[in-house]
Design goal:
Length: 575
């Protein structure tokens, strides 16, 4: 692939500059990876530490659950209905103090209580009361059925509970004697999670895999749902990675607790993790863009200094190749290109002097050849016409003979008129029609002729004389007259891709495909073998001289079975 000077200059400068910027970007990426790795280890260790502490705390609370279940005091209260008994009230006070100790010893327990379904009473750290009893029967039933003290349940109002019933067996479907319930503080859970990630820096999501509740630092429900969608499929697993949400890339860390059936997810926007490095990276890209722009401007300046004069010189040589010897406009700059331009102009001037005479002689020779080809007359045709005319007169067909004489008059007046080199296509087709009328008199009904009329927009096209009639004459002479059956001649036209094509087709049987191919080869040769292709070659040469290599004759097999001669004239070459 050939590259221009501008491209080479630009690539040279870029090949020097880009490795340095590539090294800068590589170092920046390595720094980003190192920071991300450190943050991953830090947050992951905090996740693990938090989950371990939460497991230990829930395990400690579970131990308290079991201690209360095996204690005789709640059992005796559960089977008794007389709270006027002083011993029973003492037991209530003992349980009240134990619940106070539970609340004081745990950061997460907000309200410990013991619920007695048979009396619909609750023991809280404040004593025996019915003010704190649960109102929703479904929630009471849900908590009363719990036999797993590690299972954190969320109620409809958003409160979190740990609960354990006594007796623990639920197979008989009987209500429990009592239920130990610890309401957990959602705010304390959130505050403890904020030690892992600040809400201004990222979001956390605590998910229970069985209860399907989620605790998040975000108050926006849509954001919570989006975070839950990112966490989907990663519960009960631990790890870290990168995820995308709404066009924003998040760094993600997650850890799970099989004992608590909890999964903790931490989401931090990538820009928060690599904020400063991202800013540096943007500046590197800005500097790179500015550097490339400067390189392109420098290359453009060198391009204008070197390539533009070279392009002007090459364009001037191409003009000379086209046969137009035009001097190049000299520049005011006194540099090496000025000497080149002056030398080129001297060369063009000398070529004009040397070529002018040869060119004029060539043009004169071409015009003489054109005149000679236009004036070419077939003596056999003239003899046959006089013979036919004599026969008509001897048969006393005077009207037909008179019409025949008029056809001959128009025919010879046309071919002997040399006032103009070019005529209208309408006149050329009229002359072809005259020739066909003459041959119709000669051969009668033996030959059927169909000539399609030209549309109006083609009538005024200038063409050389005698480009259609010689083709028709060739068809009569070598195809139709020798045809043993009824002859057919079809003259029609088409216009495609700016080219007018006149088609002359016959049904002659004297030429096979090899003969047609041989005739096609002779069209562009200077040596004429035999008499048959002379008319075709004459027309082909004149069209080439007049309109260029895109015009001329093309030979192929006719739709009628004989020879098809296509006369092509490139309309764009006609002024």
């Amino acid at each position: 692939m050939k590259m221009s000077i501008f491209t080479r200059l630009s690539l040279t400068f870029l090949s020097v500059l880009l490795p340095f910027y590539g090294l800068t970007m590589l170092l920046n990426k390595q720094g980003s990876d190192s920071i991300r790795s450190e943050i991953t280890r830090s947050v992951s260790s905090r996740d693990q530490f938090y989950m371990q502490n939460l497991e230990q705390e829930i395990k400690r609370l579970s131990q308290i659950f079991y201690e209360l279940l095996v204690d005789n005091d709640p059992m005796l209260i559960g089977v008794s209905h007389d709270f006027s008994d002083p011993d029973l009230l003492d037991k209530v006070k003992v349980l009240q103090k134990r619940l106070q100790m539970v609340k004081a010893s745990s950061l997460f327990v907000e309200k410990p209580m013991i619920y007695f379904p048979s009396m619909d009473r609750v023991i809280t750290p404040n004593g025996l009361t019915d003010e704190d009893k649960l109102q929703n029967p479904d929630e009471i039933d849900k908590l009363s059925r719990s036999v797993d003290p590690n299972r954190i349940v969320q109620l409809q109002d958003g409160r979190f509970y740990l609960s354990l019933r006594y007796p623990m067996s639920t197979s008989l479907d009987r209500p429990p004697l009592f239920v130990v319930m610890f309401e957990l503080s959602a705010s304390q859970l959130k505050n403890s999670l904020q030690n892992i990630v600040n809400p201004q820096q990222g979001d956390f999501l605590l998910v229970h895999t069985e209860e399907h509740w989620a605790l998040s630092s975000s108050r926006d429900e849509q954001t919570v749902q989006s975070l839950k969608s990112l966490a989907a499929g990663k519960t009960n697993r631990s790890g870290a990675g990168s995820v995308k949400l709404g066009g924003t890339t998040y760094w993600e860390s997650y850890v799970s607790s099989e004992a608590l059936q909890l999964s903790l997810f931490v989401f931090i926007p990538d820009e928060k993790v690599l904020g400063e490095l991202k800013s540096y990276e943007k500046w590197v890209w800005v500097i790179l863009a500015v550097s490339i722009a400067v390189i392109l401007l420098l290359a453009l300046a060198l391009y204008r200094l070197i390539h533009n004069p070279m392009r002007r010189l090459v364009s001037a040589f191409r003009i000379v190749q086209q046969g137009r010897f035009v001097p190049i406009a000299e520049t005011e700059a006194k540099d090496e290109f000025r000497y080149l331009f002056e030398g080129f102009n001297r060369m063009v001037s000398q070529l004009n002097v040397l070529i002018h005479e040869v060119y004029e002689k060539e043009i004169s020779t071409q015009r003489s050849e054109l005149k000679r080809l236009q004036a070419q007359i077939n003596p056999h045709f003239l003899y046959n016409c006089f013979f036919i005319m004599g026969g008509l007169i001897s048969d006393k067909e005077y009207n037909k003979a008179f019409g025949f004489v008029n056809y001959l008059r128009d025919y010879y007046r046309f071919i002997t008129k040399n006032a103009e080199d070019l005529i209208l296509l309408q006149e050329e087709m009229r002359h072809a029609r005259t020739y066909v009328d003459i041959q119709t008199v000669c051969y009668g009904d033996r030959i059927d002729v169909e000539m399609e009329p030209l549309p109006e927009f083609l009538n005024a096209i200038p063409v050389p004389r005698l480009i259609v009639q010689p083709i028709i004459e060739n068809a009569y002479k070598y195809a139709l007259v020798r045809h043993s059956e009824r002859g057919e001649l079809w003259l029609h036209h088409k216009v495609e891709n700016g080219c007018l094509t006149i088609l002359v087709e016959d049904n002659g049987q004297s030429l096979d495909d090899a003969a047609i191919a041989a005739l096609s080869e002779q069209l562009d040769t200077t040596e004429i073998k035999g008499e048959e292709p002379t008319g075709l070659i004459n027309v082909h040469r004149r069209l080439r001289l007049m309109y260029g290599s895109d015009s001329g004759l093309t030979l192929c097999r006719s739709q009628l079975g004989g020879l098809c001669v296509m006369i092509s004239i490139k309309l764009k070459n006609i002024s």
